[in-house]
Specification:
By secondary structure, the protein is mostly helical. It has helices spanning 3-9, 15-28, 47-58, 71-85, 100-109. The two termini are 35 Å apart.
Length: 111
């Protein structure tokens, strides 16, 4: 056995995914459950977001990007914050990630 295999044996299943799966099972059994696991919304992805994702794929936007988000996405977030929340940020104050755990890890890793 290699050292990698031994290390992989020590990895435990994600508690977040376990809690999310349990909530799904309870819902399927007819229970009224509020899931506090994965943080997924209880509504479908809005059509404008789906269309933007499809357009990005068709345009070839399918490669890795900067870890903290593309400049175009960060600019769109700045505009949204200003328009809807009356908040003013600079581009270097915005970070984008695949979820809260990644953003916290990226932030704390820098300390």
């Amino acid at each position: 056995m290699s050292i990698i295999s031994n290390n992989l044996k020590r990895i435990k299943p994600s508690p977040t995914i376990a809690v999310t799966q349990k909530a799904r099972e309870l819902r399927a059994a007819g229970k009224d459950v509020v899931g506090l696991g994965a943080g997924e919304p209880d509504f479908d992805t809005p059509i404008n977001v789906k269309n933007a994702a499809i357009k990005a794929i068709r345009d070839g936007d399918t490669k890795y990007t900067a870890v903290d988000g593309t400049p175009a996405l960060k600019k769109a977030i700045l505009k949204k914050f200003k328009r809807e929340n009356k908040l003013n940020y600079k581009l270097d104050e915005i970070t984008v990630g695949t979820g809260g755990k990644q953003v916290l890890y990226n932030t704390l890793w820098q300390l």
